[in-house]
Amino acid sequence: MGFNFASAWEAVADAIPDGEALIAGDVHRSWATYEDRAARVAAALRAAGVGARDNVGLCLFNGNEYLEAQFGAMKERCSPFNVNYRYTAEELHDLLDDADARAVFFSAELVDRFSEIHDALGDVALFVQVGADGEVPAWAVGYEALIESHQPASRIEREPDDLWLLFTGGTTGRPKGVMWPHEQMVGTMANTYAGMKMSLPQTVDEVVARVHDIHARGYVTRQLAAAPLMHGTAGIAALSTHTQGGAVICLASHSLDADELWACVARDRATHLTIVGDAFSRPMVDALDAAAARGRPYDLSSIFLIMSSGVMWSAPMKAALLDHNPGMKLLDSLGSSEGAGFAAKLEGSSEQASTARFKLGPNTRVLTEDGRDVTPGSGERGRLALAGPLPIGYYNDPEKSAETWPEIDGVRYSIPGDWATVETDGSIVLLGRGSVCINTGGEKVYPEEVEEALKLVDAVIDTNVVGVPDERWGQAITAVVELAEGADLHEDQLKAAVREHLADYKAPKHWVEVPKLLRAPNGKSDYRWALATAKEALGLD
Q1: What is the bridge-based pairing of β-strands 364-367 and 141-142?
Q2: Fewest Cβ atoms closer than 10 Å to its Cβ: which of 51, 82, 354, 398?
Q3: What is the CA radius of gyration of the chain?
Q4: CA gap 261, 270 in Å, rounded
Q5: Each residue's pLDDT tens digit in the chain (541 positions)?
Q6: What gap in Å lies between CA 13 and CA 19, rounded to an integer?
């Protein structure tokens, strides 16, 4: 039998029962307790008639319960999937209906939204409310009551093609469920094991052998999920951490509190942090600066690696983090829900920190629209194409699956739409996602490259760049900007800053200042919101 996460983690629990697996605030759970509680979740699913290949939604804030419910679903060969807790009742209904959800775990804070839609989700056999167990609606069961009322389910045989479903953010269109077989997802973790001078485990016995070796060497990962677990960056990191026999740490807050984060790092001795670009690192740096100014800097000595994926992570923010802890490493990973390991950059010096410059992964190509490899140094733009361990497609969408994972020269690739150029030395410069590319006067401009230039201005806290309708240009480049408190910048100053780094035609023609830039909880840009905000401010339909 090939690799399966649930079977692997059961074996880990048997091998290191007293080792820490979950930490959330003051609650620490051993591997034995983690496995026991997940087995009780599995028993509840089994009793409700939810089993192999059924989809189980997790509409939960970060916490031990998220990971227990996910493990429990995997035990029954169900496919757990992430649900964005910021969705409205209507959006939740549409996603859960599209996903054919058979069970849903939801945070108590969201009960009003689920009260509106539970009747319309007739295929859902089990609603489980996490938190506030004393006030559970009649149509649901409280999580702790469910745990207490079920004995651990017996272990079963599983398959390597059992699925972990990862829904895309939906910030530019309807969310799509990416189907990751367990054996393919673990395949994306080869570089992690290679960094520890180990081969990728293929069987349960090999997983256990690696865990014993990792513990003997003192490499045990304590992964602080600063980003939401329902985002791929933290979600995949958690899968990897538990497969190594490590512990996943969750913050008590439901939104980023940088002081809480750094206090947690010091208290729980986190070795790894998962964040999402500047949306996380900027307040983290501000908190470090403030603590240092008070003469009480945070203890960062336990941190080995901070990893970001999915969005731009600017050079100034990287450099500022490294200035506070020169001994740690920063991993800027270029990946997506549709494929992990397109490219990466590992940095450990503030002097060398850069933005959107990556080294291609061994299975990655940059292809022109007619299928040629981009010539290094040519200035040609191409789309990133990744081979290797891949998802099998989008859930219930074979047409888009064929578009995103085409076969080229007999090899299947993931091509989600990220554009880049290739430098003479073979490194790539990421331009951005084609779906949000702006066509202005016949020229293609990628929002991320303009955003990168703007973020080099000290007074710019955050920005999104969009294209608004324009009679002359087709689309006019427009920057939605959040400025530092008290900042007094004029449009001509911002334009000049952009023109220092980019061609003149890439400079925004309109500027919209907002008190706070709205981002998705995973830190990604919400371009739909930015475009609507820009159009409203400019009086456009």
Answers
A1: unpaired
A2: 398
A3: 23
A4: 10
A5: 689 999 999 999 999 999 999 999 999 999 999 999 999 999 999 999 999 999 999 999 999 999 999 999 999 999 999 998 988 899 899 999 999 999 999 999 999 999 999 999 999 999 999 998 679 999 999 999 999 999 999 999 999 999 999 998 755 557 899 999 999 999 999 999 999 999 999 999 999 999 999 999 999 999 999 999 998 999 999 999 999 999 999 999 888 899 999 999 999 999 999 998 888 998 999 999 999 999 999 999 999 999 998 777 888 899 999 999 999 999 998 888 999 888 888 888 766 777 767 888 888 999 998 889 999 999 898 999 999 999 999 999 999 999 999 999 899 999 988 888 999 988 888 887 777 888 887 777 888 889 888 988 888 999 999 999 987 788 899 999 999 888 887 888 888 888 888 878 889 999 999 999 998 766 778 888 999 999 999 999 7
A6: 8
Q: How far apart are CA 354 and CA 456, in angstroms?
A: 12
Domains of the chain and CATH, by start: 5-255 (3.40.50.980), 356-434 (2.30.38.10), 437-541 (3.30.300.30)
Residues 527 and 447: beta-carbon distance below 8 Å: yes
End-to-end CA distance of the chain: 57
